[in-house]
Amino acid sequence: MRIDDRQHDQLRKVQVENNYLIHPEGSVLISVGDTKVICTASVEERVPPFLRGQGKGWITAEYAMLPRATQQRNIRESSKGKVTGRTMEIQRLIGRALRSVIDLDSIGERTIWVDCDVIQADGGTRTASITGAFIAVVHAVGQLYEAKKIKSFPIKDYLAATSVGILSESGPMLDLCYIEDSQADVDMNVVMTGSGEYVELQGTGEEATFSAGQLNEMLSLASKGILELIEIQKETIGILAEKIGNE
Amino acid sequence: MRIDDRQHDQLRKVQVENNYLIHPEGSVLISVGDTKVICTASVEERVPPFLRGQGKGWITAEYAMLPRATQQRNIRESSKGKVTGRTMEIQRLIGRALRSVIDLDSIGERTIWVDCDVIQADGGTRTASITGAFIAVVHAVGQLYEAKKIKSFPIKDYLAATSVGILSESGPMLDLCYIEDSQADVDMNVVMTGSGEYVELQGTGEEATFSAGQLNEMLSLASKGILELIEIQKETIGILAEKIGNE
Amino acid sequence: MRIDDRQHDQLRKVQVENNYLIHPEGSVLISVGDTKVICTASVEERVPPFLRGQGKGWITAEYAMLPRATQQRNIRESSKGKVTGRTMEIQRLIGRALRSVIDLDSIGERTIWVDCDVIQADGGTRTASITGAFIAVVHAVGQLYEAKKIKSFPIKDYLAATSVGILSESGPMLDLCYIEDSQADVDMNVVMTGSGEYVELQGTGEEATFSAGQLNEMLSLASKGILELIEIQKETIGILAEKIGNE
Amino acid sequence: MRIDDRQHDQLRKVQVENNYLIHPEGSVLISVGDTKVICTASVEERVPPFLRGQGKGWITAEYAMLPRATQQRNIRESSKGKVTGRTMEIQRLIGRALRSVIDLDSIGERTIWVDCDVIQADGGTRTASITGAFIAVVHAVGQLYEAKKIKSFPIKDYLAATSVGILSESGPMLDLCYIEDSQADVDMNVVMTGSGEYVELQGTGEEATFSAGQLNEMLSLASKGILELIEIQKETIGILAEKIGNE
Amino acid sequence: MRIDDRQHDQLRKVQVENNYLIHPEGSVLISVGDTKVICTASVEERVPPFLRGQGKGWITAEYAMLPRATQQRNIRESSKGKVTGRTMEIQRLIGRALRSVIDLDSIGERTIWVDCDVIQADGGTRTASITGAFIAVVHAVGQLYEAKKIKSFPIKDYLAATSVGILSESGPMLDLCYIEDSQADVDMNVVMTGSGEYVELQGTGEEATFSAGQLNEMLSLASKGILELIEIQKETIGILAEKIGNE
Amino acid sequence: MRIDDRQHDQLRKVQVENNYLIHPEGSVLISVGDTKVICTASVEERVPPFLRGQGKGWITAEYAMLPRATQQRNIRESSKGKVTGRTMEIQRLIGRALRSVIDLDSIGERTIWVDCDVIQADGGTRTASITGAFIAVVHAVGQLYEAKKIKSFPIKDYLAATSVGILSESGPMLDLCYIEDSQADVDMNVVMTGSGEYVELQGTGEEATFSAGQLNEMLSLASKGILELIEIQKETIGILAEKIGNE
């Protein structure tokens, strides 16, 4: 049994509070166990210079943690005067993943800014960010669609993410919490679509390696978890769910 | 009547969620109308270099807004690579105000880091931050006290803050929301103690000035509001309230 | 008696050297006791992006100290690579104060850059900067007026500033020098117009508080001092003085 | 056939110039087709603060491109004043990969700084960096070993990397050059050991996704390529090769 | 005799590898003894803002060292977040020197970016950079000329540079290597044209001074060395050599 | 005749105000024509890390301009967040020049910080800075000597600097003002000692070159001017003058 009494293939409890903030076009507070992330989607009526005049849109993401989201207080990146390598890796991942299921041609010359701010961290903040950000983007895009600013619904498929890992004593596990993550030999983040295709695989064995067999076990746990996350997304999204992948 | 149907001397609805996060020694989510701020207090077992070896403590504060706390998305200060002048003014104010009611000698060689992160903004974010941060600090200091790491309870008095202002058509008003604030001729932030003493007065008439009479009207509104805020603090703090100012 | 033999309501000796530099449109060297500030006003024939096309002007201020203006050498902000919070607070204050007595519509699409560079510091550098900068701006605006680049004289009133404070042993005092300032319990900067209206009030009790009675005593000292400073401004400005507030 | 007449499972021509520079403890110039990287390994007789006093060592990597390594000149990161997200991702990857095959306990309180400077880029710069950096580290560690500064040879296994990808018209391919990389739907970087274990998998489908079947095809191409790269490493390393994995 | 057995008026061995890289319009790898610099010239079809619309071009240079070009590893300037004073001095010198022999009017509204990246350092890196950069610029300008993008050949004269110095025990010397340079009392960099005119003289006696007589001895050594360097440039440049100074 | 009616070998009017500021150990306001520089020397009782424990001292210099020292307002380097290449070149030159005439062993483990702040610029600011900084350093060192903190007077010789240049129509000239400097084909800064030895020579022909004959004419003008500047230094320094070079 795991530290929090879960089965090795069991997700933590997932909760999504829709429209969590009044200003953004889309926003959720997603909780995956004790990990809590505010995900917002903001629509800006222009695109970055490299896309101007092409009639297509852009999605970009930023990620941050409150200083005391963690056990030990972190120094703010604004105080450091720069964004760390870890933050950059995560925000590039989130943006890239979202762009794989959204038809940028259909959103017109607009940028969707996704902000994932972790207010409490207990492992899996980047995958919770992707799962929550997808819903926030659906809300924001839904507003554009209802206001008839865009003609077709540009979300081609669902998108969710989770972590899997291998602990030397307990074997492969789904959805690692912080303590599990810090003890894992291998850690893999998987991003998948509703139709079961891979979008991103990032497997790392720091001071350890993994075999082809272990890779397959981890991928199979990840599939199971992501399909469950997508069921939760469907319920949360409500009526817009039927538009996804249908236009 | 005001835009949100309040009387000119009426605060917005104030709510405080105690122990909002699991990691910090003290934390609250304070709402003043639609303004929402996560205030945390973190205890670090050392002081900045200029205080080392003197046996006394330090309190410092940081303030930030989520990018989409506001109507228009703000660029993150970490992306800009620097903290703006407005942010620096506010965090210096919060730290200075808290230090006026806390006996730094009694907390030993510790730093209390206060973080005020605005997740939704509708005017008065700096004063809500002070009012909420005071409670978070009481929780954090209470932990030290209960663990017998400090001998006497170092909080000398209550501390709360509000804004007052003058709108050319409607006269002086208490606790401005964003729309009122953006139309005000004069804007004043007042920080006071439970015994009614001033800690900070910051009155500004950008492109306008104010007379001694108007100053007095604003100060009197501020006093009324701050005493009400301190009543709310007392209820929130619970049993620790009786320690404040009594050691 | 005070450390420099002044009465509690007595300003230090104030001297203004007009047109101190050859290049700027307006410049003075102001001395308030041993505090010496070079204040310049530079006219730029364009406005910041947020004002373009509106036919109105802008005034902005920057403040700095030479490294050895002070007892201990300060590290240059250019070497640090950033402007400190204290500097930002002061330059925002100077700009805001000047904008309150100048009709920005009358100066056309121009920016007036005010630079206050402290070459020697003995307390009260920010208030000496405001008092001196006002004169430099009058000179610069006078040039525009004489060259008929602007139609009406845009200075609506005089503007000067001083500090007041409370020392625990000696009570309230006007125009603190550095030693007094470092011993004061309460420190207040007051900016006023020639007609006696407040423009800015910034009262701070770090590790101390102040009562309504003490506030009134300080405000009354400040009024006396500022009116004396404005008399000195009038003499310095000469013939242009009659234009102020008359158009 | 591919743009440069290779088979889909064929590496580009790989050349390694050993001891390319006179100053570093280890250095190579590695060419993989037209991609050329100078890889150096520098030994510093101390570790970062978080490791001091633990008797173990550290390996860290930095990566950069000359401004004109690419078709279009890039702005230097030193001129920008910051390191980009892409660079940070790559240097974190290189360091992490090397640490997986080196016994940090055996190198003592030393840091091995790995520098990978791309002087010419034609795709696959990060994987060429890893393959070359491994050899440079072996040289540097060999010096320590021969000087008897370390007791056992700390390299546990070989390490090499390559890229694989899927082009919509041509299917899966090994070792993409720049043109292939820019047309690929899916791009995956694989880092493996001499014993065929995975160290890192980074698969990305920007604006595309990939199935489990495609993943397997890519992994199998990667294995073939990496084993060939490791043969080249063995030849290059010479006599030290027999020490790897044998202590 | 000198440390490397040279005569006091003898250059180190100079080698130039033409067209060293595939992407830049001009590139060389120049070796002066153990000092090795990759010099590239990149043509950009626009000029900096201060020159736009004037029909003339610009040449600018950047200089950097690989971290392990030197005996001790240097921290990258991109990691420091800023360019050092030494680097700025050198890149300003290289750009200024090149502009003295190139007719900026003849190259049209183009910028030639010169990049000098030291891959191995043994003294004289700035003068080797100038000597090599001149050749790279000739190649790049030759391409423009052959493509008939410019009408006349804009190189007015040859340009090369060397260092001279005085060692207290051995007297004046030509082309100092690193050990000589670190022991020299006086160090002078001289940039000259093919017709023997001075372009730059930078003589420095840190903790020492030099007389008029010593100055003359150093200038005469420098002349001799630079004329030899220009002969090497002529051979390297080949057919384009006859265009220099003839249009 | 020159623009300001000087002979080609005539310096501008030089004035030195001794002990210009109350806080620094040494300070002057030097005027060379309309160029005015505040030069201060500050004594710090420690040395930079690379010199600790060696019993010798250090001299370092910083240089800056007030934003409106010039015809057009300059952006502050603190606002830009970095020091420009020009500033770095100048402050390195000033420090290096001063170190050549001061015996660092005799000042003990102290740093002398020299600050040259240009309050008005009309050409020759770097050479005026050196000439003025020398006097400020003599004052600061004199204080140490009188307080018997150092045993022997560490100034070995006088040090002054001037500029010379060649204007195409008027030939070689001494001490260029801004207009002359901006029209000059060749510009040379010369730093010399009281005994007529060179300390620094920096000759530059941007978009022009100069012959050996022109070099000699310029050097001879520079010698004449520097000897006159040293006479002015002697008068200013007063009684301490007899110590220079005599211990």
From TrEMBL, chains A, B, C, D, E, F:
Annotated Gene3D superfamilies: GHMP Kinase, N-terminal domain (3.30.230.70)
Enzyme class: transferase
EC number from the UniProt entry: 2.7.7.56
GO molecular function, a single term: tRNA nucleotidyltransferase activity
Residues bound to phosphate: 86, 124-126
Reactions mediated catalytically: tRNA(n+1) + phosphate = tRNA(n) + a ribonucleoside 5'-diphosphate
Domain of life assignment: Bacteria
Biological-process GO terms, alphabetical: rRNA 3'-end processing; rRNA catabolic process; tRNA processing
Domain Exoribonuclease phosphorolytic: 10-140, 157-225
Keywords associated with the record: Nucleotidyltransferase, RNA-binding, rRNA processing, Transferase, tRNA processing, tRNA-binding
NCBIfam families linked to this entry: RNasePH
Subunit structure: Homohexameric ring arranged as a trimer of dimers.
Function of the molecule: Phosphorolytic 3'-5' exoribonuclease that plays an important role in tRNA 3'-end maturation. Removes nucleotide residues following the 3'-CCA terminus of tRNAs; can also add nucleotides to the ends of RNA molecules by using nucleoside diphosphates as substrates, but this may not be physiologically important. Probably plays a role in initiation of 16S rRNA degradation (leading to ribosome degradation) during starvation.
HAMAP family membership: RNase_PH
Protein family: Belongs to the RNase PH family.
Protein name: Ribonuclease PH
Lineage per the UniProt record: Bacteria, Bacillati, Bacillota, Bacilli, Bacillales
Gene that specifies this protein: rph
